[in-house]
Write a structure and sequence with these properties.
Blueprint lengths: L10 E6 L8 H10 L3 E6 L9 H8 L15 H7 L3 E7 L1 H8 L6 H8 L4 E5 L3 H5 L1 H12 L3 E2 L3 E4 L5 E5 L3 H14 L10 E7 L3 E4 L2 E3 L6 H12 L3 E7 L9 E6 L2 H11 L5 E4 L6 E3 L20 E3 L3 H7 L7 E8 L3 H12 L3 E6 L10 E8 L4 E8 H16 L1
Parallel strand pairs: 1-2, 1-3, 3-4, 4-5, 8-11, 8-13, 11-12, 13-16, 16-17
Antiparallel strand pairs: 6-7, 9-10, 14-15, 17-18, 18-19
Helix pairs in contact: 1-2, 1-8, 3-5, 4-7, 8-9, 9-13
């Protein structure tokens, strides 16, 4: 990594509230400092019971800001938030988010949140019952409505023997979400208050217990779409088909395997979504018969033909059956030739609002970190997206979606 001057370093405020997951914020802090960010840690008094001030200072290379009444001449309760490019609170407890939602300012961190005019990210961590309580959910909705990015907590082991939703997302995932928010900049939480449904990966249609019909989709583009939507303030549900990628922070991941499983999950989730993006590569066919035992090779005999049956057309079904008013549906088309012609025909056939058409094969799209595409609109528009990281295509797609949401 090249050296950066203090003036060019993004200024990040890392707020730490009083939860057992505070120790994980040390790893998040290291991610920021090692990538050239200038970080000021603002722990609450409760957080200091879990991780001491000396640890924050050593890892950040800067004094931790702990008291409103320290360095009063610098007016820290105002200046820290005013000068920040990003404020991220990790972990964000139920108490901290309640204070933020109601504009309370009884310590340095809550004062900082009130004075910040930059993007703000909350990474919640608490017990499942606390996260699901109506008061917490209302506070989260309020923060999101105001433009803050509130990530969905992860599911896993909590304090003691408890397990459930409420675990702090992985520090790497939080860092990735924050990087996307920094790219978007202030005032760009344009999906706040929206629920989006994204599918990713490729379905696998079992032939026998060890074989399947599948495709080469890695799920990277769908995951980039989910991560970008979360960074832009959306609540995101991700249907993940056979993907070996860590779940993006702030995203509810639902694993699926086959086209039928994907259809069932999509039909169940779609009525609550403002936007449906079907980025998964869904198998058009599946074996007509599933062999319960491994199909054996018989010497001197040719294998029996594999009969196929059609899978349901999930994209067309979701486009035709929109129970939510104003819902937008986005599809993907992977083509090897006559890309735009096939794409336009598919757009008309599927009935979706946008279709992202890209050329695949010979190292293009599948399994790579880059992509290029043309976003076709049902209104006749064509938006080419030049080669670049899949994150850039994801943001280009969301730009088109936001313009149509109104």
């Amino acid at each position: 990594m090249s050296e950066t001057s203090p003036q060019s370093q993004p200024r990040v405020v890392l707020g730490v509230s009083g939860g057992i997951a505070a120790y994980k914020a040390c790893e998040l802090l290291r991610r920021f400092t090692e990538s050239g960010h200038q970080v000021t840690v603002v722990p609450t008094a409760a957080a200091l019971h879990f991780v001491g001030e000396a640890t924050w200072a050593a890892l950040s290379g800067r004094p931790a800001a702990t008291e409103t009444w320290e360095r009063v001449h610098e007016v820290p309760h105002v200046r820290i938030g005013q000068n920040a490019d990003l404020v991220v609170v990790a972990p964000a407890t139920a108490d901290l988010m309640a204070k933020a939602a109601h504009g309370m300012a009884d310590d340095l961190l809550t004062n900082t949140l009130l004075t910040a005019r930059c993007p703000v990210v909350f990474a919640p961590a608490m017990h499942t019952e606390m996260w699901e309580h109506p008061a917490t959910q209302e506070n989260v909705a309020t923060l999101r409505r105001r433009g803050a990015v509130v990530l969905e907590p992860a599911v896993g082991r909590l304090t003691g023997k408890d397990t459930g939703k409420g675990r702090l997302p992985d520090p790497d995932a939080i860092f990735a979400a924050c990087r996307r928010v920094l790219v978007r900049g202030v005032g760009e939480a344009d999906l706040a208050g929206r629920h989006v449904l994204v599918s990713a990966g490729g379905t696998r249609e079992p032939l026998d217990p060890v074989r399947f019909l599948g495709n080469r989709s890695s799920g990277k583009q769908g995951y980039a779409l989910a991560a970008a939507a979360a960074a832009r303030g959306a609540r995101v549900t991700l249907l993940s088909a056979n993907v070996s990628l860590p779940g993006p922070a702030g995203v509810d991941v639902i694993p699926v395997a086959t086209a039928l499983e994907l259809r069932e999950a999509a039909v169940k989730a779609a009525p609550e979504a403002d936007v449906v993006v079907m980025a998964a590569a869904v198998a058009d066919f599946r074996p007509a018969v599933y062999a319960t035992g491994k199909i054996k090779k018989v010497e001197g005999e040719e294998p029996a033909p594999v009969a196929l049956v059609r899978n349901p057309d999930i994209l067309a079904e979701l486009s035709a059956d929109r129970t939510r008013p104003g819902q937008l549906v986005v599809g993907f088309a992977a083509e090897t030739d006559q890309v735009l012609a096939h794409g336009r025909a598919k757009l008309a056939r599927k009935g979706c609002d946008l279709l992202v058409v890209n050329e695949v094969g010979d190292g293009k799209a599948f399994g790579t970190d880059t992509n290029e595409a043309v976003i076709l609109g049902a209104d006749g528009s064509e938006t080419p997206v030049p080669p670049g990281p899949k994150e850039e295509l994801a943001d280009a797609i969301w730009d088109q979606v936001v313009a149509r949401l109104g």
